[in-house]
Automatic annotation (TrEMBL), chain A:
It holds the Pfam family BPD_transp_2. The chain crosses the membrane at residues 12-37, 44-65, 77-98, 105-125, 158-176, 207-231, 243-269, 281-307. One of its GO terms (cellular component) is plasma membrane. This is Amino acid/amide ABC transporter membrane protein 2, HAAT family. Keywords: Cell membrane, Membrane, Transmembrane, Transmembrane helix. It is found in: Cell membrane. InterPro entries: ABC_transp_permease (IPR001851), LivM-like (IPR043428).
UniProtKB/TrEMBL annotation, chain B:
This is Amino acid/amide ABC transporter membrane protein 1, HAAT family. The keyword Transcription does not apply. Keywords: Amino-acid transport, Cell membrane, Membrane, Transmembrane, Transmembrane helix, Transport. CDD domains: TM_PBP1_LivH_like. Belongs to the binding-protein-dependent transport system permease family. LivHM subfamily. InterPro entries: ABC_transp_permease (IPR001851), BCAA_transport_permease (IPR052157). PANTHER family: ABC TRANSPORTER ATP-BINDING PROTEIN, BRANCHED-CHAIN AMINO ACID TRANSPORT SYSTEM PERMEASE PROTEIN LIVH. It comes from Ruegeria halocynthiae. It comes from the Bacteria. It is a multi-pass membrane protein. The chain crosses the membrane at residues 12-35, 47-75, 95-116, 140-159, 188-210, 222-250, 256-275. Its main location: membrane.
Amino acid sequence: MSLELKHCPILIAIALAAFLVLPSISLATEVLIFAIIALGCSILLGYAGLLSFGQAIFFGLGAYVASLSQIHLGVNFLVGLLIATAAGATVAALVGALAIRRQGIYFVMLTLAFTQLAFFVSYTLDEWTGGDNGLLDVPRNSVDIFGFEIAIDSSEKFYAFVAISFVLIFLGMIRITHSQFGRTLLAIKQNEERATALGYSVKWYKVLAFIFSGSITAYAGGMYALFLNFAPLSNVELIMSEHILIMAIIGGTGNVYGAVLGSLFLVVVGDMLSAFWERWLFLLGGILILTVFYMRGGLISGLYGVFEFLSQKFGSASTQKES
Amino acid sequence: MELFFFQLLNGLGLGVIYFLLSVGLTITFGLLNFVNFAHGAFYMVGAYVTFVIVSLTGNFWLALLIAPLVIGTLAIALEQSVVKFSYVLEHKYQILVTLGVALMLQELVIMIWGPIGKNVSPPSSLAGIIEIGDFIYPKYRAFVIAFSALIAIVVWWGLEKTKFGALVRAGSENAQMVGLLGVNITRLFSITFGLGGLLAGLAGVLAAPLRGADPFMGVEALGIAFIVVVIGGMGSFLGALVGGLVVGVMQSVMSSVWPEGASLMVYAAMAAVILSRPRGLFGRA
């Protein structure tokens, strides 16, 4: 349990700090939701070494399923999110199992083709998804347990729910990445042939990574639809996949806190810049290039660099390193 | 029957543009083993340069001459300043770098011309229609088919019959060996990259009067180019030609039967080809 004991306070502190420091509660909500989504991408890219353009599939799917199950089945929001998560896991298993049959550029192309397929399927099924207009009036059906009604009808309550989800999902993923499973993924990423030779079923590990990634992304996608009360078609666009990738890479993959930094950077800087400069994505493209050339570990590695520099300078043994 | 023939011709017109769009992507992949996610942006900028030249001078032919050269120069400049430093990196980092370049070009275009598309009118000499008996067809589309076929022949000749083409083909087999034989391989790389950009820019010029110029056409074109290259086989000239025509005709014929399904089908075909036959129709194993 020591792992959870160590990380739980940090995660709670992040959720509280986002609430207190950021200018608006909706911005803080968005940061935490996208932190989960960037984490989903980071598990594939940072641990399994899989560059996938497929994250928008799970994101959009989660948003649609969480919304549609509430609208048509009348389930409460929590059950809706769980159904979305299950759907995300199922589709991720399918997409993953097919995509990992090819490697390198062909793998990337397959994930790209699947995202485009998901987009055009969503577009075609406009009776369900609302097509181009998106799915409007997404409810947040309250939970009713033995007469106690739990509703997330205010933005504060919704933030509390997102924050709890954030802490639990991050703890779960920290546990998983520190387990033998996470270590094996890293081994596969470093040298796939060696991992195979050692007798690991590389395919299963990769599919499992897809399932973890897809399910948390779908859960977060569902939360995002509840947050906006709206599930736009742009959720399943290729551009969404690109943004998720950029977020994860700028933050730094291979470390769960990189996802938080990436989300924080894109959501907050994006919000600040877009107020007076709409074309700030121009800057983002440049930052992406610089990150690949000069800071492959992303912002989180830069942060660790600063920590290390400080701890060397002041010779303190109690480094703040949190990995 | 007549409608079918009309759609078939339209598909051919679309297909030859797709060929021009994709041939640079497939050759740079073959030679440099390099995946360029900014390739669609060359097509888009080509359409915008056409818009500028046509609205300034009213002369489409000038655009047809100048715009591809502008895009070729842009491609070489990008290769020299950014792209060549990523040749040594893994594929996934090349993808990310060129993704960054594509994003920057797209945003730059929006900064200059705004997010809403621009219309480009075809040259007045090609404005009307051709009548062959009962059959009528827009002159401009007929011109696109004929002109692109000519360019396809020129590209084929360049690849098969010139020394430069021989170097490109040899480099696709083994770039290191060609370098050891005393060929300046880095220069060969950047010229090929530039020519690939030039052809994508040309595709943008030809497409501009048909579909206008808008900032997001690059992303769309990149998707199409990937489909073509995958179906035809990566690194193959013939693959780009046949793949382009197949995708163009498929989209055009489907669009009269089931419009939403047209894109669905081509991406499904792309996934099916990668899964069942990754080297495509004409690619090497």
